[in-house]
Amino acid sequence: MLSHKLETAIVLAAGEGTRMKSGTAKVLHTIAGRTIIGHVLEALKPLSPKELRVVVGASREAVESHVKEISPNAITVFQSERNGTGHAVQLALAGLKASGNVLVVAGDTPLLNPLTLTEFLEAHIEMGNEASVMTASLPDPSGYGRIIRDETGSIARIVEERDATDDEKSVDEINTGVYLFDIAALTSAVAKLTNKNSQGELYLTDVIALIKASSNKASAILSFDFTETLGINDRAQLAECANYMRERINLEHMKAGVAIIDPASTWIDVTVTLASDVTIYPGSWLSGTTSVATGAIIGPRTTLDSVQVGEGASIIESHCTGSVIGPQATVGPFSFLRAGSHLAAKAKVGAYVEVKNSSIGEGSKVPHLSYVGDATIGSGTNIGAATIFVNYDGVEKHKTIIGDEVRIGSDTMLVAPVTVGDGAYTAAGSVITEDVPAGAIGVARAKQKNILGWVLRKRSATKSAQAAKKAGATE
Length: 475
Ligand code: UD1
Ligand code: CA
Description:
Radius of gyration: 32 Å
CATH superfamily of the largest domain: Spore Coat Polysaccharide Biosynthesis Protein SpsA, Chain A
Strand order of the largest sheet: 14-17-20-23-26-29-32-35-38
CATH class of the largest domain: Alpha Beta
Bound molecules: uridine-diphosphate-N-acetylglucosamine, calcium ion
Helix content: 10-25%
CATH topology of the largest domain: Spore Coat Polysaccharide Biosynthesis Protein SpsA, Chain A
Number of strands: 41
CATH architecture of the largest domain: Alpha-Beta Complex
Shape: elongated
Largest sheet: 9 strands, parallel
Number of helices: 10
Structural class: alpha/beta
Strand content: 25-35%
């Protein structure tokens, strides 16, 4: 069992991430709903290291508390000055059990695949290595440390780009920053590191040549998929890695039976669950605790942030957050469900409707141009076009309760707190400030009065007056 083979994992995450130009620590930026370091720690899980050490430095508090939250067993090691990856590992090794294998990874490589790490560990053990470095062949190796092999083809050393000659820079095999070491060999090698390089730092990469010289048990192991080991140093690389992650996530969902019409424009966080036979149209973004049941149709251009979608529901061109959308319910196009919106089965929220902290009962409809705030609506009810739930008196929010089988006339203002009983109606254009009992119609508007001939008298020179005259109107 692999779980017995890995003593410790060390994650290096003390760097400033200056190239991100951000107030947020580099490893706390997110991809697909998980932080960069969260992805790294997730990839390490199947290796079950007995101990996990994370080196923190820049933005120490924020990184430390995030690590504790997602990996409560992790030990954080503080590196007060960034003297290089070799220095970070020196600190992380302090007080560690002296035998067994240790995996070292950077906290900024979120695409690492657990399977690749497992195979890397197997190879390291099988070869009896004291040091193994995972390498990759990159179309553009610039910025990375290069792998320098000797005449026999085995690794001689790693040279950083800034210290490399032009010949060395032309090597396209790079150091991924993923290593396995025998703890004792690593401990004695890091003690010998010097800072004689362009950055004046202790480079972890130099331990390869040191171990090679002392025991000859060091190997470079080429990984197949270079995308897995891409590191993030700037915003462009963050976007690039997010794209690879999106492809990976979408592929998994498609394999599980989700129809994604345009994977290139569909973004799904790792925290989202989708049933088979869900269809997602282009330009949609699913995040948070969103879950979608079978047969539901999402998009185009729809955002679902922590929304529970029932079987066969459809949500078109809409933005929904913190809501529950029942089976066969429909939303959109162009609607906005805010936190606390609950649509029962077969409920409908149509075009240009905003809903907040409200429940809409089974089969009830709010088809056009409305605001529904702080309301409870029964079943089988219809809310006429342009109805506004007037929930805010300027100081406090109030509730509106609408019964079953109610017909709210178009352009009704329901001034909360107010209750409309089962089977009641309101007349179009009413401003309802008092409760309407079951079965009643609430009419709250001025009675219409027609002033005959007004246009002919007051607007005599207009086209309207001409048209009225033609129709037989008199002054
Ligand atoms: C490093 C490697 C390079 C490799 C690349 C892979 C060294 C000297 N170079 O370069 O060969 O190709 O990673 O992505 O190791 N960190 C600390 N403390 C420090 C310095 C760095 O914890 O004092 C952490 C950083 O937060 C980061 C990781 O170590 O997570 C790597 O550091 P970074 O500065 O990104 O190294 P690269 O220049 O990318
Ligand atoms: Ca890096």
